Amino acid sequence: MWSKLIKPVVQISSKFERNSRFACSLVPGEPEGPSVKTPIPGPKTKELLNKLGSLQQCGTVQLFANYDKSIGNYLVDADDNVILDTYTQISSLPLGYNHPTLLKVFNDEHNLKSLINRPALGVFPATDWPKKLENILKQVSPGLPHITTMMCGSCSNENAYKNVFISYRRSIRGENVDFTDLEKESCIINQPPGSPKLSILSFHGAFHGRTFGALSTTHSKPIHKLDFPAFDWPTAHFPRYKYPLEENTRENQQEDKKCLAEVEDLIEKYEKKDNPVAGVIIEPIQSEGGDNEASPEFFQQLQKICKKNCAALILDEVQTGGGPTGRFWCHEYFNLECPPDVVTFSKKMQMGGYFHTAEMTPKLPYRIFNTWMGDPGKLILLENIIEIIKSQDLLSQVQKSGERLKCGLHDLECEFSDLINSVRGRGTFLAATATSAKLRDDILKRLKQKGVQTGACGTAAFRLRPALVFQEHHADIFLDKFRQVLQEIK
Ligand code: PSZ
Does the beta carbon of 92 sit less than 6 angstroms from any atom of ligand 1? Predict the structure, then answer.
């Protein structure tokens, strides 16, 4: 549906494609490549780390950025190091830094006023809000008619679960049956029947956020979860494939079957425990957990299991959504027989939220609600981002750059098979596994010193999450630096 909307406008000529050093950038003003002047973190970043450290825990800060100087695919740090950014703010920056169109968006007075008069959207939306939802978000909907806007990815999943529980309980209670007095009294003190025992099934290795409900479905690292009470909700195994996929089809199909059988078993077990599964949440590519893929057939079967058991299927497209896989939504690759019940988004979409079926819409107001419920300023940015994705045919660009990157990574995994393996992913949403966690960390550190920012995921994997304006010549720079690093380590 989405792909039909796109008309190629910007074509890089084949001459440029062949000699990518001279290729023109989609974001004007980009440097020719990275340049590193100091060790990273450099002296200015260290000074700032000291200052920030006196105010808060800042052990996760890698560097301080100069967002005035950063441009396109290049992040400039406090020490003026120019870094090719293939990680883009944890995959949340669709057009790179300081895109000329986005820089001008708030010169428009109406847009500026939408930005500074931030409404409580559930109560006082602006006159143009329905039109904006229709023209911007509905336009990219994966076939789902209703939209709930939210703040971040965790908050979108969290509210999607509540939405799923509301509709599950309605289906049990009956369409127009009112709440009982006992329900109203018991929910206030967290007791059934008002606060019922219901569960969301999720997968080992999943990441769905850090807020309280979402955290019970996050299973990627102990550091996210230690010390926090959690729901007794079922956790199934996500397929773990052998690579290369083409050479391990039978084994990987067996893996799908095993994981799907476990989902069915858990649904039955939790039904018997009086904690029925109202919904199943899954990432199209498990991201934080190590960029683990599952086949279209796996997702098709999972949808069937959900339908059979009256559990809603929630696809978490927070990290995969907005184009990095080469389709606007990653689950477009899965040929599902109908859209999932809920699709959650954030990151590249700038604002959080979820698309859902009409049946999923609560009958009563004020059940899914908070102060801001999104941000019109972010939707204005998204409007412009979507325009650029279409006019510059960025989904095709992602596919082309992704192919270049993946081919190059395959070459490197052959040449350095003692160091890296299991190259995988779609579009530029790519990853590979290092032979140990220590080696992976070393690779990322060395890449940084050569002016390339990448990300880690899972126990020993690293991932690429460039912007949609990442082109073939950027891929060549990345592959060249990566090759140098592997050569040094070998
Ligand atoms: O450590 C962290 O908190 C990180 S590192 C990457 C993320 C979080 N990703 C966020 C994320 C996600 O990848 C998926 C698939 N679902 C939900 C979330 C949560 O989004 P935020 O961080 O916006 O709450």
Answer: no
- Is 152 a pocket residue for ligand 1 (Cβ < 6 Å)? yes
The atom of ligand 1 lying closest to the CA of 152 is 23
Asked if 202 contacts 282 with a C-beta cutoff of 8 angstroms, the reply is yes
Residue of 104, 242, 371, 438 marked active site:
371
**pLDDT (0 to 100) of residue 22:** 53
- Segment 282-288 mean pLDDT: 98
Q: How far is the CA of 153 from the centre of ligand 1 (A)?
A: 6
The answer to whether residue 347 is catalytic is: yes
- Residue 290 banded pLDDT, cuts 50, 70, 90: very high
How far apart are alpha carbons 172 and 465 in whole angstroms? 43
Contact 350, 381 (CB under 8 A): yes
Say yes or no: CB of residue 320 within 6 Å of ligand 1: no
Residue 456 Cβ contacting ligand 1 at under 6 Å: no
Mutate to test the pocket of ligand 1, among 90, 344, 349 (most ligand atoms within 8 A of CB): 90
Whether residue 40 has pLDDT greater than 70: yes
Q: What are 119-158's pLDDT values in tens digits? A: 999 999 999 999 999 999 999 999 999 999 999 999 999 9
Using most ligand atoms within 8 A of CB, pick from 61, 346, 354 the residue to mutate for ligand 1: 346
For residue 317, how far is its CA from the centre of ligand 1 (angstroms)?
Answer: 10
* Closest atom of ligand 1 relative to the 155 alpha carbon: 24
Q: State the distance from the centre of ligand 1 to the C-alpha of 186, rounded, in angstroms.
A: 33
Domains along the sequence of the chain with CATH? 2-102+391-489 (3.90.1150.10), 119-374 (3.40.640.10)
Would the pLDDT of 18 be above 50? no
